[in-house]
Amino acid sequence: MSRPLPVALAQAPPRPAEAPVSDFADDVQALLAKFPRTRLVAHPELHLCGVTGSGAESEARLQDAAEPLDGPRSKALAELAGDLGVWLLPGTVCERGPDGELFNTALAFSPEGRLAASYRKVFPWRPYEPYAAGDRFVVADLGDAGRVGFSICYDAWFPEVARQLAWLGAEVIVNPVMTTTADRAQELVLARANAIVNQVYVLSVNTAGPEGTGRSLIVDPEGRVRTEAVDSAATVLTDVLDLDDVERVRTYGTAGLSRMWEQFDERDAAVELPLYDGRIDPRTWRPGPHRARP
C-alpha cells in the first residue's frame, strides 16, 4: 500500500506587500508547469507580506499588510487554489484579529477553492515580533492524502508543538520559516529531531536570499533528510512523500527498534507533568486520525 503525496517547497524571497496576488499566482502557475503532478505547494513564512526586520517601521508595514481571514487576499488565494486544483499553502500572512491585534497565520487552501485551515503562531519570536500568540494547535485533512499539522518558524524550538500535532494525527508537519539569522543550523537539527521523536515527515521551507538564509529541507519519519537546499539561493524542492511510511515506522519502530507511541502499557501509572498542570495518561498515549481536532 502507498499514499503518495507529491509536494513542492518554494524557497523564494518574500514578495512586496503591495504586490497583487495575481503576481503570486504567476509564480505558482510557473512552478506547476515544471512539476505538474504536484498536489501540495508550500511557501515560506510571511511570503506575501514582504516585511523583514523588527522595530516600529516594520510593525507599521505589517499593520498596513494585515487583513482579516475573510478579506480579499484570502478570497483570491482560495480562488487560485481552486483554479489550479492543488493544496496551496502560501506561507503565512499577517492577519488582523477581531480586536485589531496582529497574528502571524499559516493558511491552507483546498483544491476545491476553500480555506481549509488557519493556524496562528503560538510562539512568536519575542521580543522581535509584534504578534499576539495563537491559542491552539491545528491539523488539516488533505482528503485521502493524509493529515497535515502546522507550525511556524520559532514554534519548532518548542517540542510541545510537534508532539501535540502528532498526537492529533498529523503525518506531515509543515514549518514555513523566515529565518534571516545565524541560527538556521540549529533549526536543521530541530527539524530532524521533531521528525524522529514524533515519527512524522517535517517540511521546513525557508525564505531565500538575500533576506533569508534558505537551506530548506524535507525530513522523513526516521529523521533522514530526503532532499535539501544547500544554500540560500531561490529554488524549489520536490519530493513524493509516502504517508503510509508513517504507519510503517510507528508499527515497526525507528531503525526497526524504537516505538515511542507504544511506550506505555495501560497498567502503567500516569506520569504527572507539573510544568503543564497535566499528565501523560497511558490509556490515551496514542496518536491517530481519531483524535478530535481543536
Question: TL;DR of this structure?
Answer:
It holds the Pfam family CN_hydrolase. The protein is an alpha/beta fold. The protein contains 6 helices and 15 strands.
Describe the structure.
With 294 residues, the chain is of the alpha/beta class. The protein has one domain (4-263): Carbon-nitrogen hydrolase (Nitrilase/N-carbamoyl-D-aminoacid amidohydrolase), CATH 3.60.110. It is built from six helices and 15 strands. The strands form four sheets. It has a six-stranded mixed β-sheet, with helices on one face. α1 (21-34) packs parallel to α3. InterPro entries: Aliph_Amidase/BUP, C-N_Hydrolase, C-N_Hydrolase_sf.
Look at the helices and sheets and give the structural class: alpha/beta
For the record, give the distance between the C-alpha atoms at the N and C termini, rounded to a whole number: 30 Å
Spatial strand arrangement across the major sheet? 7-8-9-10-11-12
Task: From the 3D structure, determine the CATH topology.
Answer: Nitrilase/N-carbamoyl-D-aminoacid amidohydrolase
What is the H level of CATH, i.e. the homologous superfamily?
Answer: Carbon-nitrogen hydrolase
Strand residue content: 15-25%
Q: According to CATH, what is the class? A: Alpha Beta
Stretches with pLDDT under 50, minimum 5 residues: 290-294
Number of strands: 15
- Count of the domains: 1
Specify the number of helices: 6
Largest beta-sheet characterization: 6 strands, mixed
Cα-based radius of gyration, to the nearest Å:
19 Å
Per CATH, the architecture is: 4-Layer Sandwich
Percent in helix: 10-25%
Net shape: globular
Q: What's the order of the H and E elements?
A: EHEHHEEEEEEHEHEEEEHEE
Please tell me the overall pLDDT: 93
